[in-house]
Each structure stands twice: as structure tokens, then as C-alpha cells.
Design brief:
- The structure is a single chain.
- By secondary structure, the protein is an alpha+beta fold.
- A 3-stranded antiparallel sheet has the order 1-3-2.
- Helix 1 packs across helix 2.
- It is about 45% helix and about 15% strand.
- Strand 2 and strand 3 form a beta hairpin.
- It has one domain.
Length: about 60
């Protein structure tokens, strides 16, 4: 569908949005607490996955 392209965020972008450390975001990604995808050696988080995470109330 045109105009429905998913936004992908870096761990640094997620950390800024949540006011937490990028290291915490990477730990959550590695543990599976936050859903993400690896692009080469870099983690990326879909905007929709971040929204779902926040709605789940999993922020420590």
C-alpha cells in the first residue's frame, strides 16, 4: 500500500524517546523484551513495535 511505509528507529532514537540509556535499549533488544530486527550488526526497532511495547507498560 502506498504511504504505509514502516519507520525504523535506532536504539539511540528509542533511548531519546524514552529518556533512557541506549545500552538499556540494546539489552532489551537482546533479551527479547523489546522487539527489534538486526540489519547486519545494527539493531532497528519498528515504530509499531515501540508503540506496542509502550502500550504493554514494560518500561522499567
Amino acid at each position: 500500500m502506498p504511504g504505509t511505509q514502516e519507520r525504523y528507529l535506532s536504539p539511540n532514537d528509542v533511548a531519546k524517546k524514552l529518556n533512557i540509556s541506549p545500552l538499556t535499549v540494546r539489552r532489551w533488544l537482546k533479551s527479547g523484551k523489546l522487539k527489534g530486527v538486526k540489519v547486519g550488526s545494527l539493531w532497528r526497532v519498528r515504530g509499531s513495535d515501540l508503540e506496542a511495547f509502550l502500550k504493554g507498560g514494560e518500561k522499567d
